[in-house]
Amino acid sequence: MEAVGANKRAYAARMGYDFADAGAAAVDPSRPPNWSKIPAVRSRLPFYHWIFWNDAENILYAVIGHDDYCASPDLVVTEDFNGVNSGVFFVRRSEWSEWFLDAWWNQTSFIRFGSTKSGDNAAMKHLIDSLPPEEARAHVRVSPMQCLFNSYPWFPSWKSVYRLIFYPWTTWKGAYSDGDFLVHLAGLDDKKGWIAKILQER
Prior knowledge:
Elements: H1 5-15, H2 37-44, E1 50-54, E2 58-60, E3 75-80, E4 83-92, H3 95-105, H4 120-130, H5 133-139, E5 140-142, H6 158-166, H7 168-174, E6 182-184, H8 191-201
Helix pairs in contact: 2-3, 3-4, 6-7
Family: Belongs to the glycosyltransferase 34 family.
Keywords: Glycosyltransferase, Golgi apparatus, Signal-anchor, Transferase, Transmembrane
GO molecular function: glycosyltransferase activity
Protein backbone atom coordinates (compact mmCIF):
# COMPACT_ATOMS: atom_id res chain seq x y z
CA MET A 1 0.00 0.00 0.00
CA GLU A 2 2.91 2.37 0.67
CA ALA A 3 3.71 2.40 -3.05
CA VAL A 4 0.30 3.82 -4.05
CA GLY A 5 -0.94 5.40 -0.82
CA ALA A 6 0.05 8.93 -1.82
CA ASN A 7 -1.71 8.54 -5.17
CA LYS A 8 -4.97 7.41 -3.57
CA ARG A 9 -4.88 10.03 -0.82
CA ALA A 10 -4.22 12.80 -3.34
CA TYR A 11 -7.11 11.65 -5.52
CA ALA A 12 -9.51 11.51 -2.56
CA ALA A 13 -8.43 14.97 -1.40
CA ARG A 14 -8.84 16.43 -4.88
CA MET A 15 -12.35 15.01 -5.22
CA GLY A 16 -13.44 15.76 -1.65
CA TYR A 17 -13.83 12.08 -0.75
CA ASP A 18 -12.87 10.29 2.43
CA PHE A 19 -10.02 7.82 2.12
CA ALA A 20 -9.60 4.77 4.32
CA ASP A 21 -6.69 2.35 4.26
CA ALA A 22 -7.88 -1.01 5.56
CA GLY A 23 -4.33 -1.63 6.78
CA ALA A 24 -2.67 -4.68 8.25
CA ALA A 25 -4.74 -4.48 11.44
CA ALA A 26 -7.89 -5.22 9.44
CA VAL A 27 -6.54 -8.46 7.97
CA ASP A 28 -8.23 -11.59 9.29
CA PRO A 29 -5.39 -14.10 9.87
CA SER A 30 -7.76 -17.03 9.40
CA ARG A 31 -8.04 -16.28 5.67
CA PRO A 32 -5.83 -15.07 2.83
CA PRO A 33 -5.53 -11.25 3.01
CA ASN A 34 -7.73 -10.54 -0.03
CA TRP A 35 -10.77 -11.74 1.88
CA SER A 36 -10.42 -8.94 4.43
CA LYS A 37 -11.72 -6.39 1.95
CA ILE A 38 -15.20 -7.73 2.72
CA PRO A 39 -15.37 -6.87 6.45
CA ALA A 40 -13.42 -3.66 5.76
CA VAL A 41 -16.15 -2.47 3.38
CA ARG A 42 -18.95 -3.89 5.53
CA SER A 43 -17.80 -2.02 8.63
CA ARG A 44 -17.76 1.34 6.84
CA LEU A 45 -20.90 0.94 4.75
CA PRO A 46 -23.31 2.42 7.36
CA PHE A 47 -21.44 5.73 7.20
CA TYR A 48 -21.43 6.36 3.42
CA HIS A 49 -23.89 6.35 0.55
CA TRP A 50 -21.34 4.66 -1.70
CA ILE A 51 -18.01 2.95 -1.12
CA PHE A 52 -15.48 2.40 -3.88
CA TRP A 53 -13.17 -0.49 -3.10
CA ASN A 54 -9.97 -0.87 -5.08
CA ASP A 55 -7.11 -3.20 -4.28
CA ALA A 56 -3.73 -1.85 -3.22
CA GLU A 57 -2.30 -2.58 -6.68
CA ASN A 58 -4.42 0.11 -8.36
CA ILE A 59 -3.43 3.64 -9.39
CA LEU A 60 -6.11 6.33 -9.74
CA TYR A 61 -6.03 9.01 -12.43
CA ALA A 62 -9.11 10.62 -13.94
CA VAL A 63 -12.51 11.70 -12.67
CA ILE A 64 -15.16 9.03 -13.04
CA GLY A 65 -18.63 10.09 -14.12
CA HIS A 66 -21.69 9.54 -11.94
CA ASP A 67 -24.30 9.39 -14.70
CA ASP A 68 -23.33 6.10 -16.30
CA TYR A 69 -26.18 4.18 -14.69
CA CYS A 70 -29.73 5.46 -14.97
CA ALA A 71 -31.01 3.51 -11.99
CA SER A 72 -29.19 3.07 -8.71
CA PRO A 73 -27.92 -0.47 -8.36
CA ASP A 74 -26.38 -1.71 -5.15
CA LEU A 75 -23.25 -3.28 -6.63
CA VAL A 76 -21.31 -2.17 -9.71
CA VAL A 77 -18.55 -4.44 -11.03
CA THR A 78 -16.49 -5.05 -14.14
CA GLU A 79 -15.69 -8.22 -16.06
CA ASP A 80 -12.44 -9.33 -17.66
CA PHE A 81 -11.40 -12.55 -19.43
CA ASN A 82 -12.23 -14.55 -16.33
CA GLY A 83 -15.56 -12.90 -15.52
CA VAL A 84 -16.32 -10.59 -12.60
CA ASN A 85 -13.26 -9.07 -10.92
CA SER A 86 -13.50 -8.43 -7.18
CA GLY A 87 -10.45 -6.16 -7.01
CA VAL A 88 -12.46 -3.06 -7.93
CA PHE A 89 -16.14 -2.43 -7.22
CA PHE A 90 -18.70 0.12 -6.06
CA VAL A 91 -21.22 -0.79 -3.38
CA ARG A 92 -24.16 1.33 -2.25
CA ARG A 93 -25.43 1.50 1.32
CA SER A 94 -28.56 -0.66 1.48
CA GLU A 95 -29.96 -3.70 3.22
CA TRP A 96 -29.29 -5.73 0.09
CA SER A 97 -25.62 -4.69 0.05
CA GLU A 98 -25.24 -5.66 3.70
CA TRP A 99 -26.77 -9.04 2.90
CA PHE A 100 -24.50 -9.48 -0.12
CA LEU A 101 -21.30 -8.68 1.78
CA ASP A 102 -22.28 -11.03 4.61
CA ALA A 103 -23.16 -13.79 2.15
CA TRP A 104 -19.90 -13.24 0.26
CA TRP A 105 -17.90 -13.53 3.48
CA ASN A 106 -19.73 -16.74 4.34
CA GLN A 107 -18.66 -18.50 1.12
CA THR A 108 -16.02 -20.35 3.13
CA SER A 109 -15.76 -23.28 0.73
CA PHE A 110 -13.89 -20.98 -1.67
CA ILE A 111 -11.07 -20.08 0.75
CA ARG A 112 -7.69 -21.13 -0.65
CA PHE A 113 -4.31 -21.12 1.06
CA GLY A 114 -0.99 -21.78 -0.64
CA SER A 115 -2.29 -20.75 -4.05
CA THR A 116 -2.03 -17.72 -6.31
CA LYS A 117 -5.81 -17.45 -5.99
CA SER A 118 -7.25 -16.73 -2.54
CA GLY A 119 -10.83 -17.63 -3.49
CA ASP A 120 -12.55 -14.31 -2.79
CA ASN A 121 -12.97 -13.57 -6.48
CA ALA A 122 -14.44 -16.99 -7.21
CA ALA A 123 -16.78 -16.57 -4.25
CA MET A 124 -18.07 -13.23 -5.55
CA LYS A 125 -18.59 -14.67 -9.04
CA HIS A 126 -20.44 -17.67 -7.63
CA LEU A 127 -22.69 -15.51 -5.48
CA ILE A 128 -23.60 -13.17 -8.34
CA ASP A 129 -24.19 -16.09 -10.71
CA SER A 130 -26.45 -17.71 -8.10
CA LEU A 131 -28.78 -14.72 -7.83
CA PRO A 132 -32.22 -15.09 -9.39
CA PRO A 133 -32.28 -13.14 -12.67
CA GLU A 134 -34.73 -10.52 -11.41
CA GLU A 135 -32.68 -9.90 -8.28
CA ALA A 136 -29.47 -9.62 -10.27
CA ARG A 137 -31.05 -7.11 -12.65
CA ALA A 138 -32.35 -5.03 -9.76
CA HIS A 139 -29.19 -4.91 -7.68
CA VAL A 140 -26.10 -5.63 -9.80
CA ARG A 141 -24.64 -3.75 -12.75
CA VAL A 142 -21.74 -4.94 -14.86
CA SER A 143 -19.98 -2.05 -16.56
CA PRO A 144 -20.34 -2.30 -20.35
CA MET A 145 -16.69 -1.27 -20.63
CA GLN A 146 -14.15 -2.73 -18.22
CA CYS A 147 -11.92 0.32 -18.70
CA LEU A 148 -14.60 2.59 -17.23
CA PHE A 149 -13.02 1.95 -13.83
CA ASN A 150 -10.81 -1.15 -14.05
CA SER A 151 -8.25 -0.89 -16.86
CA TYR A 152 -5.35 -3.31 -17.26
CA PRO A 153 -1.99 -2.24 -18.70
CA TRP A 154 -1.34 -3.84 -22.07
CA PHE A 155 2.20 -4.85 -22.94
CA PRO A 156 3.57 -7.31 -25.50
CA SER A 157 3.74 -10.87 -24.21
CA TRP A 158 2.63 -14.24 -25.54
CA LYS A 159 -0.50 -14.12 -23.39
CA SER A 160 -1.34 -10.53 -24.38
CA VAL A 161 -0.85 -11.19 -28.09
CA TYR A 162 -2.92 -14.39 -27.88
CA ARG A 163 -5.78 -12.53 -26.21
CA LEU A 164 -5.55 -9.68 -28.69
CA ILE A 165 -5.80 -12.07 -31.64
CA PHE A 166 -8.54 -14.34 -30.33
CA TYR A 167 -10.41 -11.98 -27.99
CA PRO A 168 -9.89 -8.51 -29.49
CA TRP A 169 -13.15 -7.02 -28.15
CA THR A 170 -12.55 -8.16 -24.57
CA THR A 171 -8.94 -6.98 -24.76
CA TRP A 172 -9.95 -3.59 -26.11
CA LYS A 173 -12.65 -3.09 -23.46
CA GLY A 174 -10.13 -3.56 -20.67
CA ALA A 175 -6.88 -2.09 -22.00
CA TYR A 176 -5.61 1.02 -20.26
CA SER A 177 -5.18 4.21 -22.26
CA ASP A 178 -4.53 7.83 -21.27
CA GLY A 179 -7.56 9.37 -19.64
CA ASP A 180 -8.83 6.18 -18.02
CA PHE A 181 -9.87 6.42 -14.39
CA LEU A 182 -7.70 3.64 -12.99
CA VAL A 183 -5.00 1.17 -13.94
CA HIS A 184 -5.18 -2.21 -12.20
CA LEU A 185 -2.03 -4.33 -12.03
CA ALA A 186 -3.88 -7.60 -11.56
CA GLY A 187 -1.81 -10.73 -12.08
CA LEU A 188 1.46 -8.93 -12.79
CA ASP A 189 4.76 -9.80 -11.19
CA ASP A 190 6.93 -7.06 -9.67
CA LYS A 191 3.97 -4.81 -8.88
CA LYS A 192 6.18 -2.26 -7.10
CA GLY A 193 8.30 -1.94 -10.22
CA TRP A 194 5.24 -1.44 -12.39
CA ILE A 195 3.81 1.14 -10.00
CA ALA A 196 7.05 3.12 -9.97
CA LYS A 197 7.25 2.99 -13.77
CA ILE A 198 3.66 4.10 -14.32
CA LEU A 199 3.78 6.92 -11.77
CA GLN A 200 7.06 8.17 -13.24
CA GLU A 201 5.54 8.25 -16.72
CA ARG A 202 2.69 10.38 -15.42
